[in-house]
Amino acid sequence: MSGNCFGQEYFTKNGRISFFSKASLENISADNNQVVSLLNMQTGALRFYVLINAFHFPKAMMEQHFNSDYLESDKYATSTFKGIIAGINNVDLEKDGSYAIDVSGSLEIHGVTKNIKTGGTINVKMESYQPHPSLK
User: How many angstroms separate the CA atoms of 60 and 58, rounded?
Assistant: First the structure.
């Protein structure tokens, strides 16, 4: 996630989510660069909102089936996640590096909400930090 910083909160409207599934007939992959997310570095609270029809596939037919047959994006337009990053205090925003994290929370997709827990990585790259114009 990269974006604007307001105190200890980080916000972006162009986060990225991708997925890949190895299948016997044909591998399936998609990218979505229109993910809205908010991260509070003091509490570890993490939220993101995803437009389902913003996933783009290498083949138009895959995209059509994904939206109409599988996720029914006309009916279920968004997916949301609300959770907490455990150990957020171990991430040093002033030092480049990769920081292993654990995330738990509720993921809602296709009208169904499930609790999940997964690992992840926060990559800090100071050269890419751009303060919000109001902070300059």
Answer: 7
